[in-house]
Batch of 2 targets.
Target 1
Amino acid sequence: MRKAIKMIALFSLPLCVACGGGSKELVNEMPTTVNLLYPTQNLLCIDNNISFDWSDATDPNGDNISYKVEISKNRELTNIVKAQTISTSQSTITLEKGVAYYWRVIAVDNKGKQGEPSSVFAFYTKAEGESNIAPFTAELVKPADEIKVDGLIVTLEWKGADSNTGDTLTYDVYFGEDVTPITLKEEGISTTSVEVTVESGKTYYWKVNTIDNTGAKSIGQVWSFTVN
């Protein structure tokens, strides 16, 4: 009798293993981030019919990939003027002349999973007969927007650029507790960083206006941070 019970147990074991070994559902991973190739960062485009180009993305699951191209008139890409989703890594788009643009690309798989957005590149489409061009808006370096920071002295840092590469740039820095900063912290400086004294528990707002040597000015985006 005991031998018969053992045989029943042995024969039933594979069945139990089969019942409990169900396959796991494959996790859909996001595609890789693309690199922008053209127009390059801070490029002055003589022609406004532009062939945008970027690197191919890959997908860990082998899914088909499309690309979401976004072109904006501001660096934070809240003012999108052109957007398209295509299956190739190149697209020719006609834009207005005499405008500073900012662009990025996001890879998307065929299940709708988006990759991390690419870097944002700036470029300018030159207008007919235009001799001087306003600089690009300042690009944030640190602290990251809406981040929490430690310490009572914070270094504000940014990047400036102009498609007229021979221009000299200066900066007006506005800083304070107002959501729209109106207090001029520094005026006409040529450096791209300043130190500010802050208080624990407060939120601060700041922006940088960029001016070239002819007086052409670009108004910066407002950034913020909170002190722990």
Target 2
Amino acid sequence: MSKPAFIITIDTEGDNLWQNHDRISTKNTHYLPRFQALCEKYAFKPVYLTNYEMAIDPDYVAFARDVIARETGEIGMHLHAWNSPPLEPLTDDDWRHKPYLIEYPAEHIRSKVEFMTHLLEETFQTKMLSHRAGRWAFNEYYAALLIEFGYVVDCSVTPKVNWQYSPGNPKGSGGTNYTDFPEQSYFIDERNIAKKGNSPLLEVPMTIQYKHSAVMNAFKQGYDRLRGKRRSPSVHWLRPSGGNVEMMKRVAQKSLDEGHDYVEFMLHSSEFMPGGSPTFSTEQHIETLYQDLEQLFSWLSKRTVGKTLAEYYRDKVAKK
């Protein structure tokens, strides 16, 4: 029996977009080689899901082309609607509100997906096969566009998480509710992306586990409702937050114990740079991050095999 896959996904985007609402820099590009080297040490192949500002950064382009040439990773598409051309304002301040792509008119969604796909394919001279939506916002129309433009795998679904509580357009209804979506990979139903179907687009949901038991979650949500608060049950992701390596191991192990044939890790490219995110603001935070990654990757190397999203997709197709 083959080992489960370990899929590393990196949302590859500008520096500290949590706080920078009026400008975008891409200095984190220069911190990616260290992470790439760590991945290669364990024969893991990261997927750099790349957005607009990174795709036009010459240093990132050189880095990514080298990864492609050496077949040590994959470049996919990531789209932040508020700064990805063609620009069509949706709110009074898109850079501050960061509206979801799915909140834009259909023709604007299509033009942005088309522009980014062509930009990435022309820049890196390779077909874009993998994708993750900006701010995790996905719907049936978006999925249909991905299929039309030749994408075969998406990783936007975050099981157990309801993004409707996170606003984009102040006049909108928030992001996508993934509460009842599958936890394991599935070919989507184009008419309902929450269900398995026969489309050519494979969904590879993030590896996420509840923090508490079902009984405790029900109690907490009832208590929140009484206090007038709205939020999803607490969850743990396969994602570093500083000193949480044991928790990440538990999340991965629980998923493997449940029979998942992959575990999926994520981080933002800016989180490898001191000050590039609220979580890792100092050099010591970065060193702690790498200590955690070293332990996690060493542990996973005995239990999984590294694959890109496209490689995982090809394996799933071969087994159909």
